[in-house]
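Hi W., the prephenic acid complex you wanted:
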Amino acid sequence: MNEEKDMADARAILAGYRASIDNIDAALIHMLAERFRCTKAVGVLKAEHGLPPADPSREQQQIARLRQLAKDANLDPDFAEKFLNFVVREVIRHHEQIAANNGAAKAG
Ligand SMILES: O=C(O)C(=O)C[C@]1(C(=O)O)C=C[C@@H](O)C=C1
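Structure:
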């Protein structure tokens, strides 16, 4: 009897955590969508002005800043760096595509 109640309690606690996880995941998706909306505008600006898609010195500043923020927030700084690199690689891929399309539009 007690075991059943323990299990029911555990399931209710798990459902509560999962509701928070779902809200956090939704917020992450919205924040990423907003970041990519912004970086796509950066890609257009860079393509129009002949600026390079990647800026390694800016990335170094971002990594240093995010590693410190991660440490302060008790998050693994290596994970924070990997996550930023993952996102930035995708941004650079978008920038390269935009630049290629911009060049094709000018040539055509
Ligand atoms: O800040 C820029 O120049 C960007 O293009 C944005 C961004 C980023 O996603 O934060 C992407 C590529 C650069 O290498 C550096 C930073």
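Residues 39, 42, 54-55, 58-59, 62, 88, 91-92 surround prephenic acid (CB under 6 Å).

W.
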